[in-house]
Amino acid sequence: MFSCGRQSATHCKLAPNTANSNKTATSLLTPPVYDEILMTTLRHDWTIQEIEAIYTAPLSDLVFRAAEAHRANHRADEVQGCMLLSIKTGGCPEDCAYCPQSARYDTEVDRQDLMNVDETLAAAGRAREQGATRFCMGAAWRDVPKDGRFERVLEMVRGVRALGMEACCTLGMLTQDQADALADAGLSAYNHNLDTSPEFYGSIITTRTYQDRLETLARVRRSGVTVCSGGIIGMGEDRAARYGLLRQLATLNPHPESVPINMLVPVEGTPLGGRAAEDPLELVRMIATARILMPKSMVRLSAGRLALSEEAQALCFLAGANSVFLGEKLLTTPNPESDADLRLFEKLGVKLVGAEPRATT
Ligand code: SF4
80, 134 in Cβ contact below 8 A? Predict the structure, then answer.
């Protein structure tokens, strides 16, 4: 029912010289500020003022512009399905305030050592049967270990690729040699989220720095593996922190090929366990703004989806989300059941598809 809008959309550009904090949100999103180029040309020099103007535009304008950018670069009737498996659970020495896998918090997460390769590949096979084309393996480590466990992860990556799926890992910080070894094993993408803005970061994590994260992303980029990096809303940050996160991501050159946008799932026992649910329309604004700033990236509607109504999820897809996690668990937090997802996609006329990571330069 939908088609790619490359041919027909009114291509337009948010002109670089409009970085003027005096402009109103509406003026930044209304012709003639847009011209023929915005939706397919990538910029890496976004300012906070521009991002704020986009984020705070009237919601209908914002979603409309994001949908245009989406259709100019992707098929609007396709969503990539990813499956995330926790291959090593709990006992992490870091103190990320949202995370039930931190050893510092008393949560119901049971610790589990690194899984074996056969179990992991069996899970990848089941994910493929459920329509997933990307299999993500997450391990609650601060750093990627330098012992036989890393060899085991490399074997998992080779096995997932042999199943014809994209392989993604999120294993914490890594060295350049480790990034290169993952690349040699065929890793498609490495996830390492920035989580939030540099300014708010210290309220959430104290055991590693923002710069550590940026350096990990740089090593992944140098290895040739594509970058998956995004953040979380609903942790008590203000909108300025969201603009700051988006600017960090959108000024990376190239942009991350995949940008997961998460909404906090408060877990009892973590410092953020008592936080009230975030307004889903903030998630829609975040996704739409990410879509406009990084039009060629996959924007992934990630954790927190279970708290969204079908209508809110539909709005997220309209705003440019084109990737989701399938399966009942995201590492340790709940996610919609596969059947519910398939029913929703059918109602929306959306197909689950594979998507090789694209270069976004
Ligand atoms: S988010 Fe990752 S690094 Fe932070 S505590 Fe959880 S598992 Fe550890």
Answer: yes
Structural contact between residues 168 and 228, judged by C-beta atoms closer than 8 angstroms: yes
Nearest atom in ligand 1 to the alpha carbon of residue 172 is 3
**How far, in Å, is the centroid of ligand 1 from the Cα of 263?**
16
34-92 pLDDT, tens digit each? 444 456 678 999 999 999 999 999 999 999 999 999 999 999 899 988 888 999 999 99
Domains in the chain: boundaries:
16-73, 78-353
User: Which pTM value belongs to this model?
Assistant: 0.86
Mean pLDDT for 110-118 is 95
Could you tell me if the CB of 193 is within 6 A of ligand 1? no
* 136 among known catalytic residues: yes
* Chain mean pLDDT for the chain: 86
Amino acid at 152: R
Reply yes or no on whether the pLDDT at 28 is more than 60. no
**CB neighbours (10 Å) of residue 75?**
18
Which CA distances in Å does 102 have to 26, 109, 192, 302? 43, 9, 16, 20
Catalytic residue among 82, 168, 169, 316: 168
**Per-residue CA distances from 24 to 32, 133, 250, 284 (Å):** 14, 41, 21, 20
Res 300 pLDDT > 90: yes
From residue 340, alpha-carbon distances to 305, 323, 343 in Å are: 12, 16, 5
Helix (H) / strand (E) element for 226: namely: strand 226-228
Q: How far is the CA of 43 from the centre of ligand 1 (A)?
A: 31
Least confident of 79-88, 201-210, 289-298: 79-88
Ligand 1, atom 4: closest residue by C-alpha: 96
User: How far apart are the CA of 93 and the centre of ligand 1, in A?
Assistant: 8
Q: Is 12 a catalytic residue?
A: no
Q: Is the separation of the CB atoms in 144 and 173 below 8 Å?
A: yes
User: For domain 78-353, which architecture applies?
Assistant: Alpha-Beta Barrel (3.20)
